[in-house]
TrEMBL record:
<dbReference type="Pfam" id="PF02771">
    <property type="entry name" value="Acyl-CoA_dh_N"/>
</dbReference>
<feature type="domain" description="Acyl-CoA dehydrogenase/oxidase N-terminal">
    <location>
        <begin position="21"/>
        <end position="88"/>
    </location>
</feature>
<feature type="domain" description="Acyl-CoA oxidase/dehydrogenase middle">
    <location>
        <begin position="125"/>
        <end position="215"/>
    </location>
</feature>
<protein>
    <submittedName>
        <fullName>Acyl-CoA dehydrogenase</fullName>
    </submittedName>
</protein>
<dbReference type="InterPro" id="IPR013107">
    <property type="entry name" value="Acyl-CoA_DH_C"/>
</dbReference>
<dbReference type="InterPro" id="IPR013786">
    <property type="entry name" value="AcylCoA_DH/ox_N"/>
</dbReference>
<feature type="domain" description="Acyl-CoA dehydrogenase C-terminal">
    <location>
        <begin position="253"/>
        <end position="365"/>
    </location>
</feature>
<dbReference type="Pfam" id="PF08028">
    <property type="entry name" value="Acyl-CoA_dh_2"/>
</dbReference>
<dbReference type="InterPro" id="IPR036250">
    <property type="entry name" value="AcylCo_DH-like_C"/>
</dbReference>
<keyword id="KW-0285">Flavoprotein</keyword>
<dbReference type="Pfam" id="PF02770">
    <property type="entry name" value="Acyl-CoA_dh_M"/>
</dbReference>
<keyword id="KW-0560">Oxidoreductase</keyword>
<dbReference type="InterPro" id="IPR037069">
    <property type="entry name" value="AcylCoA_DH/ox_N_sf"/>
</dbReference>
<dbReference type="InterPro" id="IPR009100">
    <property type="entry name" value="AcylCoA_DH/oxidase_NM_dom_sf"/>
</dbReference>
<dbReference type="InterPro" id="IPR046373">
    <property type="entry name" value="Acyl-CoA_Oxase/DH_mid-dom_sf"/>
</dbReference>
<dbReference type="InterPro" id="IPR052547">
    <property type="entry name" value="Mito_Isobutyryl-CoADH"/>
</dbReference>
<dbReference type="InterPro" id="IPR006091">
    <property type="entry name" value="Acyl-CoA_Oxase/DH_mid-dom"/>
</dbReference>
């Protein structure tokens, strides 16, 4: 594979597209709205279906290709890149699932290929938080008068109003509850969105709240429910892919910050100095430190990709790589902010946006305390 074609399906991302995304990014950041223009371009370019099986119209791309594409998109608009990343992670996981019925898979895949439909998992709740920390979701699905009805709320739902499908983490209203995934067409009666995403960064992800009120869900869409406490039947690959792809996305944000800093130093000529800031050793040191952090990120991401391709489970190490890459990315952008002063924090310049965006890298699962606890426990258990 040459990075531009897989199984006869084009996978290249035109530089011109990234330029348009970058030109729109500030406006979408300020409005807090999803970049639907960007989504439309991804749809028209056939980029939304690449994680699907070749037999279903996709390119069956692996983790390395997902990272390449998401990283490049993030160089233009990381919010759009995160929506695309979730598309690849969820559709790729469904393709590999041993429990989703073939007919339901085909419904989802056909809508993605034919209509460019978007899908994402809806998991986090106001009281529960992220399911990664345990607990039974308050979102419940109950069988009443021959119909399964869904009730609950899901916060931080990346892509919200752009999504066609939601993979909802829910529990049955039974004496012994079953917990797992319920596929929900998000245009069903009883589904609504509350605007709730007012975060510091990644503002154009539209990560608003879904509210489900007596939503009638066809039984075939109860795709993977198991007794509470039982192991999930879904492949563990999703957790590893999620950790690595998210790491690569925020690394791309840091690289955008680094590139802006280089341009600023070359063009900024203080009158008292009479020459560009780029001539001063102080800034050479800062750029050296920045590039060192990004070099470490490149090595960490490559390690994750190589081990995944060799068949090693990611597990604890993938979480550590996500933590380290994210911390390095934040440190790199922080250096640029520290040495540029007011220009670096001005909304007239993109570095301020890169800084707010890269800080959001820490909110993704698995979070640092969980990663470190797991790594320490694994070390002691040998």
């Amino acid at each position: 594979m040459d990075g531009s074609q897989a199984g006869g399906v084009r996978t290249d991302v035109p530089d011109e597209m990234i330029g348009r995304f970058a030109a729109r990014a500030a406006g979408y950041d300020r409005s807090g709205e999803i970049g639907f223009d960007n989504i439309d371009e991804l749809r028209e370019a056939g980029l939304l279906s690449l994680a699907l099986p070749r037999a279903k119209g996709g390119a069956e791309i692996g983790l390395r290709e997902v990272v390449r594409i998401v990283s490049k998109i993030a160089g233009g608009d990381p919010s759009t890149a995160l929506i695309l990343a979730m598309q690849y992670l969820q559709s790729g996981a469904i393709a590999r699932s041993p429990v989703w019925a073939d007919g339901v898979k085909d419904e989802v895949f056909t809508s993605i290929v034919r209509d460019g439909a978007l899908i994402n998992a809806l998991r986090v709740e106001p009281d529960l938080g992220t399911p990664a920390r345990g607990g039974i979701p308050a979102t419940r699905i109950k069988h009443t008068d021959g119909v399964w009805r869904l009730n609950g709320r899901k916060i931080f739902s990346t892509g919200s109003s752009a999504l066609k499908w939601g993979v909802v983490w829910a529990a049955t209203d039974e004496e012994q509850p079953r917990v797992g995934q319920v596929l929900v067409p998000l245009d069903l009666p009883g589904v609504r969105i509350e605007k709730s995403w007012h975060q510091l960064g990644m503002r154009a992800t539209g990560s608003d709240t879904f509210v489900f009120e007596n939503v009638a869900v066809p039984e075939r869409y109860l795709v993977s429910l198991v007794p509470y406490g039982a192991a999930s039947p879904e492949p563990a690959i999703l957790a590893t892919w999620h950790a690595v792809v998210v790491a690569a996305l925020y690394d791309a944000v840091a690289r955008s910050g680094r590139d802006w800093l280089v341009s600023f130093l070359k063009t900024r000529v203080p009158s008292a100095l009479g020459r560009p800031l780029s001539t001063l050793p102080r800034f050479h040191t800062v750029l050296g430190e920045t590039d060192g952090l990004l070099l470490a990120n490149e090595a960490l991401i490559e390690r994750a990709l190589s081990r995944e391709e060799a068949g090693f489970p990611g597990g604890v190490e993938a979480g550590q790589i996500r933590r380290l890459v994210t911390d390095n990315a934040i440190a790199a952008v922080s250096l640029a902010v520290a040495v540029t002063g007011n220009p670096g924090l001005s909304q007239d310049n993109p570095l301020e946006r890169h800084y707010r965006n890269v800080l959001c890298g820490r909110i993704h699962t698995p979070q640092a305390d969980v990663v470190l606890e797991g790594a320490g426990r694994a070390a002691l258990e040998g």
